[in-house]
Amino acid sequence: MFVTSVCTTLLLLALGATAKKPNILFILTDDQDWHMQSLEHMPFLQKYLVQEGTLYTNHYCTVAICCPSRVNLWTGRAAHNTNVTDVFPPYGGYPKIVHEGINSNYLPIWMQDSGYNTYYTGKLWNAHTVDNYNAPYAGGYNGSDFILDPYTYEYYNAWMSRNGQAPVSYKGQYSPDITAEKAYGFLEEATQHKEPWFLTVAPIAPHSNVKLEPIDAVDMDAPKYAKRHAHLFKDYRIPRDANFNPEKQGGVAWVKTLPRLNDTVIEYNDEFQRSRLRALQSVDEMIEKLIKTLEEKNLLEDTYIFFTTDNGYHISQHRMHPGKECGFDTDIHIPLIIRGPGIARNRISDAVTSHTDLSPTILKLAGQTREDFDGTPIPVYEQEVLAANNNRNSRHEHVNIEFWGMAIPEGQYAHYDGGPSDGNGLYKDATRNNTYKGLRLIGEDYSIYYSVWCTGDREYYDVALDPGQLDNYFDAEAEATRRGYSIAGRSFEEVVNRLDALMLVLKSCKGRDCVEPWSVLHPGGNVKTLKDALAKTFDAFYEEQPKVSFDSCELGYIKELEGPQIPNVYDDGEERLELRGQPSFKYQGHWSLFT
């Protein structure tokens, strides 16, 4: 209660006596990495956001590909609840978003309902095209200028639709600069009205340069950059961390069998990342101009500024060509910075957060809430951040990770056999199935990634001991490691039994069950963390749990083919199951739910 009152007071003081709702500026890049130090190569971001705001060092996307990740971000619902799991139909893209009702039920609509004028410039959705941009129009914006497929990722050939008008070609102009200019214009428009505003700026940088036509010869190469940045980062090399083109390979399924990259490919990959850093410089310059504009208009202290990306990126880690879609931290661990009234300056928060939490956070800042979120507001105010940093148990420690479909390599050497790409083989090579369920868990004394693939493969990495995620404890050669491993004095098998049960809850959770999954297993409320669940009294209960599995490998979410869905529920001596609204029966001293 004390923290809440302090935060409320700080906010009211920051906003002034009028208690006008704060403005919100949201900057969303595309495919920006954390682990190759891209943030460190953006000086204006460091000056105006990192040094003037809070950096969230344990922030994750929940699905490592752009369209499903953006739907997760803008709805606050897990991908298995949005049913948008790919970038193109039938499992994703704008037509799927419309079909699922999301176009009329997501954050910009809710912000308008909260009294905000809303604006958007840049990339909104995949498969949002020059042909279907008005069928229907994207909902929820007072002003918009959307980059449209099939030209979205062509840096010098953007097509955009402004406020629902016919698409216009910007051939020859640099796409991130165009997005920036549109943002300046919308900021001017927004500040002429008395209502608070919510402006999203979504440049395509540093995504690969992609030509989607003709579809049978897709070309995916390094991003293009503005000529004024061509001289930068000549000496940059991708960090040669332990997982950079390793001699001992981590991973399972197709990842496990990748050959090592040769010197030609490594040289190409270094230049690929240099191009990504150069492309981000336009975004960095935009950040400075947006900040200075807000300052000139005396709005900076009344505005929350968010900076993040849709998913991470790998280049050469685990012997992989440029790309994303994996469960490794390179792909799911991403930047998040928040600056604004009541937020600590130059602060680091280690609270575990994800994109599922961003819509609840923004809506809370707008003075609203909803009951159908799968996430929960992030601690943003200084006292909240301090409290969360000092008490890790005050917030959940898990991130629900999921993916369906293909792993698509990018770049000139996209073939995983090491041969050069002629374009035609891109999707053929990518058809290896990459469907998996993952769990990222960060507690006071542990940092774990656990996954189950549709192929039956499993991964377990102790990320605290193995940041590169190279030593999979399920490998046959890791038997000795498994025998000697423990958390809180409990064996590897006992830890995995708990993680599998937790993942079983998360794989089809909804609402509060996604935030407090341990409470599904232990309705009495006495288990909130992995360490709590590792109590010996629960051993038999977890051994009896149904296990996460897939009936088949599919390219999209088909619930009926994803094995068991309902976990057993522990009987703590009190009949609390009526609170869950599900029928139940008792067996072997435990409660089990059924549908």
TrEMBL record:
The conversion to 3-oxoalanine (also known as C-formylglycine, FGly), of a serine or cysteine residue in prokaryotes and of a cysteine residue in eukaryotes, is critical for catalytic activity. The keyword Glycoprotein applies. GO terms for molecular function: arylsulfatase activity; glycosaminoglycan binding; N-acetylglucosamine-6-sulfatase activity. Keywords: Glycoprotein, Hydrolase, Signal. It comes from the Eukaryota. Its EC number is 3.1.6.1. It catalyses: an aryl sulfate + H2O = a phenol + sulfate + H(+). InterPro entries: Alkaline_phosphatase_core_sf, Arylsulfatase, Sulfatase_CS, Sulfatase_N. One of its GO terms (biological process) is phenol-containing compound metabolic process. Pfam families: Sulfatase. The keyword Glycoprotein applies. Residues 1-19 form the signal peptide. The modification 3-oxoalanine (Cys) is found at residue 66. Residues 22-367 form the Sulfatase N-terminal domain. Belongs to the sulfatase family. This is Arylsulfatase. It comes from Aaosphaeria arxii CBS 175.79.
